[in-house]
Amino acid sequence: MPVFESVTVLGAGVLGAQIAFQTANHGIPVVSYDVGDDAIAAARHRLDAIVDQYVADSGREKRAAAEEALTRIRFSTDLAEAVSHAGLVIEAVPENVELKRSVYAQIAAAAPESTVFATNSSTLLPSAIADATGRPDRFLALHFANHIWRQNTAEIMGTPETDPAVYQRVVAFAVEIGMVPIQLHKEQPGYVLNSLLVPLLNAGAELVLKGVAEPETVDATWRIGTGAPLGPFQIFDVVGLRTAYAIASARPDEGSQAWAAYLKEHYLDQGKLGVESGEGFYRYR
Amino acid sequence: MPVFESVTVLGAGVLGAQIAFQTANHGIPVVSYDVGDDAIAAARHRLDAIVDQYVADSGREKRAAAEEALTRIRFSTDLAEAVSHAGLVIEAVPENVELKRSVYAQIAAAAPESTVFATNSSTLLPSAIADATGRPDRFLALHFANHIWRQNTAEIMGTPETDPAVYQRVVAFAVEIGMVPIQLHKEQPGYVLNSLLVPLLNAGAELVLKGVAEPETVDATWRIGTGAPLGPFQIFDVVGLRTAYAIASARPDEGSQAWAAYLKEHYLDQGKLGVESGEGFYRYR
């Protein structure tokens, strides 16, 4: 018997769709909620593309099971109905604290008392939302990375109010759907991965801004020196330069502002957005 | 004809011996200087071990050439004589600015006018030594990493006084001995690699010190999230916890002091020094 017999994923964007697929692909029924028929139509296309990408990564023999997994995903545009039988709700709606709080207020009334709520938020701490859930002891963060089946970390972070037994059930769920559970004992902005990655990327940006070395040189040094497959600027290109710009421009310090201006002038204004646009610090294809 | 027809390496410690081997293994005659007969005897043993390690990494068919390379290394305990015919002197003596300045003052008088001097210092900027060389235009930093044939970066960093033509000759030399030249356009403490690595290691240390997650968890997150072979604490073990302690304890900020104290209490005081002692954050063999 699975840890949670039914899982509802709120939001069928890039990551929401991947979470729905990963869960269904491990045998668990999923309700995928989004705001309207257009969003659901987009989600169906996205899931087909996810299956193709998953099969490309994992082997053709995985296609039949992956397509069968899609049959375990039911779509809904009715928020109260979507959560009415959920054991676990994973919230992956846009990163807006007021929007999230409003969604939690609605599902708090509609979901069973026992339902566990988890936010996939990358940028908000769960304690910023906990009181809106009406069940802070059954609420925590469960954070996935893009390419969920390949970068298969699930960062699990409670608030001081999260019931330890609930936390452990979510750890067990993460394992059940093929994730490596990354257990955080305290709230930490950026969780573990971004707490490590951001200082590395900032250090690379600083070397280039100061004119110490070119991006290619910085990346080659990192790859050779540490054996990593990608240097900081290759990672910037994967993350996307619009995201890098948004993060840098939101920070008040001089270095971040200078980096944001550099990205805008040399990359964004020239349509160079990273891998997604075919060119960033490097050219692709 | 090689860029420099003869190379003298000052200091036959861990890295000095590797530099001598790497240079000789690319066909260039080397003079290996150290302070006395005991140091030279140790250097001979070290070079034999280097050949074994190199062959283990590179394949048995490389042994004959590697052993022949050793015949191109001549040992000397006479500093003036060691540099008297050198095209390039690579200084790899202990990281003490007064010692280095004294060595440069001696070789400035003994080496030909045209000889280029390069320091392998990890922790000093070349501008802190340049005036002692008597030839600041023919002086720069040429920084190698441990396991020189595998982590084959050569970070090349001049001072504002370094002649660009000399800089480019040293770049060409680095390529000639099988290195990837990492060209820094300005002086930068820690060069490129440590400018990236130190912030990553500090971020990992902070997560553990704050009690957010265990070292194994941090490392797993980094490996899965970035595809890197080693997480921060695996790197700490390779670098050696005494070195990590020395660096942290020399810094005045509270976080570094707390990390130094943590390393001392939980690792150094228990003989856990990292890979070198068989145990650090992890156990080895």
TrEMBL record, chains A, B:
The residues covered by the 3-hydroxyacyl-CoA dehydrogenase C-terminal domain are 190-284
Quote the catalytic activity from the record.
a (3S)-3-hydroxyacyl-CoA + NAD(+) = a 3-oxoacyl-CoA + NADH + H(+)
**Positions of the record's site feature: Important for catalytic activity:** 143
Query: To which pathway does this protein belong?
Result: Lipid metabolism; butanoate metabolism; Lipid metabolism; fatty acid beta-oxidation
GO term, biological process aspect, one: fatty acid beta-oxidation
Q: Which residues form the 3-hydroxyacyl-CoA dehydrogenase NAD binding domain?
A: 7-186
What are the entry keywords? Answer: Fatty acid metabolism, Lipid metabolism, NAD, Oxidoreductase
Give one GO molecular function term: (3S)-3-hydroxyacyl-CoA dehydrogenase (NAD+) activity
For this protein, the Enzyme Commission number is 1.1.1.157
Do you know which Pfam families this protein is assigned to?
3HCDH, 3HCDH_N
Q: What is this protein called?
A: 3-hydroxybutyryl-CoA dehydrogenase
Originating species = Herbiconiux flava
